[in-house]
Amino acid sequence: MSQIAAAETLFVRCFSSNRRHRQSSSLTTGSRVSYQVTQTDVSINELRANMAMTALKKNSMSIAASLPPTHDSLFYHCLRVSRQVQIWLQAPDGYIKYPALEDSGYQMIDGHLQVQWTSKLPFPNDRQLSCCGKHKGQCTRCICIVNQLPCTIFCQCPADCSNRKLIHTATSNSQTIIVMTHPKLYESRGAQYYKDSQTTSFCLYAPNARNVWVILTAFGNEEHRLQMTRTIEGLWETVTDKAKPGRTYLYLIDDYHGRYMLRTDPVSFSVVHIPEVNQVHSVVHDETIYQWGDQNWMMHRS
């Protein structure tokens, strides 16, 4: 398996060499310690996902053809390549011992030999990925109702579908967050500043993280590092009085693979480019500062 891992690393580097590498830095107190967070630090599946998201944002066509293979398909490709190499190495010999096809990325189906491209489904067989189709009226017997799931923005049901409403039956705030639909995540995730107590709470969903810190920065330099506490369902939280509005911050994530990743807040209200370190940092924002002037229109609208 070490050879497969080496092949995966080579594939990632080849695909990453033509793309712009992303860089981040982590700063220890009193000194600047830079570490790279580039595409070469990710697995081939993660690289494939990153490239797909970039292509989607650019409205690219034929996205699949430009993506690297999955880890599973790369494994079977390496088996076929290994078989071919073993045959070539025996070319000077008088007798060639051909490796078994069934153990080299091929399979027998109905008596016919076929290439085994992958051993997994094209997409996860997870009921939570279900979405209902287009139909008239409210959702009463759609696939989402059958699976006891709320309808999402990917469903083709009407926007006022009653099954899209938030579920308020959870017993704790953290559980309420889990069952919320996407439009309301900004009300509980990210950096929430409370003017009364002059404190800021940070909440991040990172189910695969081993440790998470909030890095409070100034001009790109780390000033404070706050350890976050894992609650339930992969949520990490902390509260501090050191993050006033305007304070820049990043998340430092330690995953179970031993990698440290510096990331911006996916639901931050604001971000800013720090020219000193050529990075984008999230910004703590007080959303109550802006005073809306459409109260009269809201009151009298039809």
Task: Walk me through the topology.
Blueprint (H helix, E strand, L loop, with lengths): L1 H15 L7 E5 L2 E5 L8 H14 L13 H19 L16 E4 L2 E4 L27 H4 L26 H7 L10 E5 L4 E7 L3 E10 L2 E7 L1 E2 L4 E6 L7 E8 L4 E4 L6 E5 L4 E5 L11 H6 L2
Antiparallel strand pairs: 1-2, 3-4, 5-6, 6-10, 7-8, 7-11, 9-10, 11-12, 11-14, 13-14
Description:
The chain is of the alpha+beta class and 302 residues long. It folds into 3 domains: 2-115, no CATH class; 122-165, no CATH class; 176-302, Immunoglobulins (Immunoglobulin-like), CATH 2.60.40. The protein is 22% helix and 25% strand. The chain contains 6 helices and 14 strands. It has helices at residues 2-16, 44-57, 71-89, 143-146, 173-179, 295-300, and strands at residues 24-28, 31-35, 106-109, 112-115, 190-194, 199-205, 209-218, 221-227, 229-230, 235-240, 248-255, 260-263, 270-274, 279-283. The strands form 4 sheets. Strands 7, 8, 11, 12, 13 and 14 form a 6-stranded antiparallel beta sheet that branches. Strands 5-6-10-9 form a 4-stranded antiparallel beta sheet, with no helix packed on it. A two-stranded antiparallel sheet has the order 1-2. A hairpin with a 2-residue loop joins strand 1 and strand 2. The longest helix is centred in the N-terminal third of the chain and has 19 residues, at 71-89. The radius of gyration is 25 Å and the shape is extended. Mean pLDDT is 79; it is low at 20-38, 166-172 and 174-181.
